[in-house]
DNA sequence: GCCGTTTTCGGCCCGACTGTTTTCAGTCG
């Protein structure tokens, strides 16, 4: 069992114990163990059992729980408490904005045991009767439920990716035994690298279409049901899977149509005429267009750009020369500054790392006060000597406070090579307030990059509303780079606004926000959405070479 | 349930903000 699973199990246990009003200090130590386990730089399963209780925050009791999990994959105490809690009440833990205390009242005082009932109660204005609940809380809960329901059956690209690749391999190996010369490809949202996936679509171009169709219902990994247009199923997790079987001769046309999006495909085919087509390239050629990458096929402005041969050369993973906005053990990261740097240098072959630990207001994340900023800078200077020509840039993720100011005085801010300014608190502002707050941060002369502009968490939290045009225009006017936070939950700035930012001359930066060496690989998701947004390497800050970005940071210094 | 011992049990305790209160509890990052 991985640390992450152990950590989640402990958090779950602590939440359930809160719902059953157990000793708050006991709960706290279990919740604390969740944080600790989540941040361990080694795998618990590789640790000798008798050393587990030596870990800080984990004593005899928790070590026993962890060992039980490692050895049996289960925890009796957890199973028991799950048995004493209605399923719907447990589900409520997934609603943003209410915690165990409020859920306890909803459950015990109001007698509500499911999310459906809770939603109904909001509509009936019944929540305000309970102590600690008012109109605003009721409205918040109602909105949060609606957001959660809308996320049902929808998944992050990154959640689907592993399953999709495994399935693809299974189908492709199976096809060799059934129809050895067939063609195969992903289509739909997945091929277009959409940030949210609610349907995984796969197309088979079969030589012997009847045979493949006959056999497909016996394909073991899925229990497929033959529908009118495709073979369908829903995975245990709730993801719909559709497999289309077409004649090999029609494959490229059908693949193109099913890749979509429908509006894009329809417009291109109107220009290209009827097939057959030998490949997708031919479709675009016959339409008088340059080839349009799947990521761009969203019926935005890509067809006009292709007509004028003005499509951007989309950025790729290989274009990235460095990684900005990452954390270390100085704040809430798992790996040390040196480990993070060496990983970038030796494993990722990057030229530079920007380290941006949390600023002092983020106490929960061990944010750096002025003295520790100075200490970190000393360590960076030493490491830069040791690792040269690789370079660590002195950055900070400075909290944007509620009034829009940054978290340090100008004297401190000027000691950084660059500053990522982001919002972490007071996330419930309306559009006018949130926009004004960001504008003030953008206008701060020390702000280099605006971090995750809306604070959204895909499928989980909407993020505060902002006036995108005002924000982007201000970034253009103040030479502030906008982050594409590459965490698959964020992907913020949204790709639908990349084009506007690029038109205004704003640079974008694909930042993994890594809290451990593994986290650097999230960059991949940032690149995918940046491609959807139409980003080319020359407009991406961390595609600059070390020399170019050094000059850039120097030019921005006050 | 963990920690740190005055070695056997008492203390443990982010801060800001919001909404619901009438002085505070719950939630968040």
UniProtKB/TrEMBL annotation:
The name this protein goes by in its record: DNA polymerase (Family 10)
Superkingdom assignment: Bacteria
Any one Gene Ontology molecular-function term assigned to this protein's record: phosphoric ester hydrolase activity
UniProt keyword annotation of Hydrolase present: yes
Family annotation (Pfam families): HHH_5, HHH_8
InterPro entries referenced in this protein's UniProt entry, alphabetically: DNA-dir_DNA_pol_X (IPR002054), DNA_pol_lamdba_lyase_dom_sf (IPR027421), HHH_MUS81 (IPR010996), NT_sf (IPR043519), PHP_phosphatase (IPR050243), Pol/His_phosphatase_N (IPR003141), Pol/histidinol_Pase-like (IPR016195), PolX-like (IPR022311)
DNA-directed DNA polymerase X domain segment(s): 1-298
């Amino acid at each position: 069992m991985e640390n992450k699973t152990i950590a989640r199990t402990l958090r779950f246990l602590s939440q359930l114990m809160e719902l059953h009003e157990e000793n708050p200090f006991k709960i706290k130590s279990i919740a604390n163990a969740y944080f600790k386990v989540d941040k361990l730089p080694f795998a618990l399963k590789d640790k000798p059992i008798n050393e587990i209780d030596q870990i800080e925050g984990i004593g005899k009791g928790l070590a026993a729980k962890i060992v039980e999990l490692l050895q049996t994959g289960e925890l009796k105490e957890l199973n028991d408490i799950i048995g004493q809690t209605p399923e719907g009440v447990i589900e409520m833990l997934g609603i943003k904005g209410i915690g165990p205390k409020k859920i306890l009242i909803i459950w015990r005082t109001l007698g509500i045991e499911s999310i459906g009932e809770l939603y109904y109660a909001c509509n009936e204005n019944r929540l305000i009767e309970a102590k600690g609940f008012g109109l605003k809380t009721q409205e918040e809960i109602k909105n949060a439920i609606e957001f959660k329901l809308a996320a049902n059956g929808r998944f992050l690209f990154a959640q689907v990716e592993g399953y999709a690749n495994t399935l693809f391999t299974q189908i492709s190996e199976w096809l060799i035994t059934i129809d050895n010369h067939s063609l195969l490809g992903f289509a739909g949202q997945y091929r277009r690298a959409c940030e949210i996936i609610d349907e995984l679509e796969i197309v088979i171009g079969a030589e012997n279409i009847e045979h493949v169709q006959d056999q497909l219902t016996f394909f073991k990994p899925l229990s497929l049901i033959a529908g009118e247009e495709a073979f369908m199923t829903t995975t245990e997790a709730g993801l719909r899977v559709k497999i289309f079987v077409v004649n090999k001769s029609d494959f490229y046309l059908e693949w193109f149509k099913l890749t979509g999006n429908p509006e894009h495909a329809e417009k291109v085919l109107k220009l290209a005429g009827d097939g057959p087509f030998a490949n997708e390239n031919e479709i675009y050629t016959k339409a008088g267009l340059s080839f349009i990458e799947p990521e761009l096929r969203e019926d935005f402005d890509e067809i006009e750009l292709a007509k004028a041969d003005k499509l951007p050369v989309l950025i790729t993973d290989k274009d990235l020369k460095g990684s900005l906005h990452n954390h270390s053990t100085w704040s809430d990261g798992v790996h040390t500054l040196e480990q993070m740097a060496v990983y970038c240098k030796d494993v990722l072959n990057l030229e530079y790392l920007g380290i941006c630990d949390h600023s002092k207001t983020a106490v929960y994340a061990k944010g750096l006060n002025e003295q520790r900023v100075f200490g970190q800078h000393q360590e960076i200077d030493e490491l830069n000597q040791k690792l040269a020509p690789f370079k660590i840039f002195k950055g900070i993720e400075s909290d944007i406070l509620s009034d829009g100011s940054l978290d340090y005085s100008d004297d401190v801010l000027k000691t950084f090579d660059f500053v990522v300014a982001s919002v972490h608190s007071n996330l419930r502002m309306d559009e006018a307030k949130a926009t004004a707050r960001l504008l003030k941060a953008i206008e701060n002369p020390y702000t280099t990059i605006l971090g995750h502009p809306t604070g959204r968490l895909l499928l989980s939290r909407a993020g505060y509303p902002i006036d995108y045009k005002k924000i982007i225009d201000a970034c253009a006017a103040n030479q502030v780079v906008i982050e594409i936070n590459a965490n698959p939950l964020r992907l913020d700035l949204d790709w639908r606004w990349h084009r506007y930012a690029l038109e205004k001359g704003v640079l974008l930066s694909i930042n993994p926000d890594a809290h451990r060496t593994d986290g650097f690989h999230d960059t991949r998701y940032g690149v995918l959405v940046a491609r959807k947004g139409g980003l080319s390497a020359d407009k991406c800050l961390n595609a600059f070479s070390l020399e170019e970005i050094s000059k850039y940071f120097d030019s921005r210094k006050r």
